Amino acid sequence: MDKIELHAHFSGCIRFTTLQELTIRQFGQDHEINFKKCTTLEQCFILFAKINSLNLKLDDIRRIADEIFQDFYNDGVTYLEIRATPKKGQDFDQLQYLNAISDSINKAKFNIKLIVAIDRAKSIEEAEKTYKLIKKNKIQHLVGVDLCGHPGVGHFLQFKPILQKFRDLGYKITVHTGELKQQIEENNDVIDFKPDRIGHFIYYTEEQLNNIKNLNIPIEVCFSSNLFTTNMQPNCHPVKDFISKGIPIAICTDDTLCFNTTITKEIQLIQKTFEYSNEFMSQILKESLNYKFKQE
Ligand SMILES: [Zn+2]
């Protein structure tokens, strides 16, 4: 089976043991993370708070990147698009951060591309800064831009002009949408923009789903992530409807750290839940190769 990953966040894919080590290095043994994997949403937020509180060095970023890429490689992934929100650290600025990830990509044993993520919970000025950074500097392996962050904060329309500017530079666009019920209205604005892909899309109207189908917009399905954050029963997940309606999908992890998952686990979980045959599953995975932002 061809395994690719199109929706994985850099910070959400740090190895648990590495996060633990970096946390203890900075805050001491007392601040050890006292669970092995997240079983509640609160624990996910604890992990993200830990990650954001770390004052990292460029060598840490290189190490984290190398490990993430090694983990996907070990899982049999042959093509990865990793998304990262530009960050600053002890001895690096946002450009050096992105370049460090690019350097690790150069050393990886398989094909990896980079997506820059815009956090909708941050200001437009911050997004504008990222745009200027990307416009001014050639970032190796960069193929697309993602709108992500807390779905309950900000609105797609605020970021639409910036996304259009990225599109004008030639980058592909993916948007996290329909993660919360309250985003159903917002979905219309996202669909009007015709992103190259959308992420999640678990809350929508039938009309919106038909529009997605007619526009042939692939959905990045993050099965475990959705079950975890919504308490949805596996067999109620809409991926079954996407597949039966012939809507293009790619099976993704979102955050391997938070959901203690891998692409292989996600594929198996969907296959088992909906009792798809091996042949059918292989076909789905083969089709998802068409939704890469960079076709070789
Ligand atoms: Zn995501």
Please describe the topology of this protein.
Blueprint: E1 3-9, H1 16-27, H2 41-53, H3 58-74, E2 77-84, H4 94-107, E3 111-119, H5 124-136, E4 142-148, H6 156-168, E5 172-177, H7 184-193, E6 197-200, H8 206-215, E7 219-221, H9 223-230, H10 239-245, E8 249-251, H11 263-274, H12 278-288
Parallel strand pairs: 1-2, 2-3, 3-4, 4-5, 5-6, 6-7, 7-8
The structure holds zinc ion.
Keywords: Hydrolase, Metal-binding, Nucleotide metabolism, Purine salvage, Zinc
InterPro entries: A_deaminase_dom (IPR001365), Ado/ade_deaminase (IPR006330)
Protein name: Adenosine deaminase domain-containing protein
Note down, in words, how this protein is organized.
InterPro entries: A_deaminase_dom, Ado/ade_deaminase. It catalyses: N(6)-methyl-AMP + H2O + H(+) = IMP + methylamine. Residues 3-292 form the Adenosine deaminase domain. Pathway: Purine metabolism; purine nucleoside salvage. Belongs to the metallo-dependent hydrolases superfamily. Adenosine and AMP deaminases family. The chain has 296 residues and is of the alpha/beta class. It has one domain (3-291): Metal-dependent hydrolases (TIM Barrel), CATH 3.20.20. 47% of the residues lie in helices and 16% in strands. It has 12 helices and 8 strands. It has helices spanning 16-27, 41-53, 58-74, 94-107, 124-136, 156-168, 184-193, 206-215, 223-230, 239-245, 263-274, 278-288; strands at 3-9, 77-84, 111-119, 142-148, 172-177, 197-200, 219-221, 249-251. The protein has an 8-stranded parallel beta sheet with strand order 1-2-3-4-5-6-7-8. The two termini are 19 Å apart.
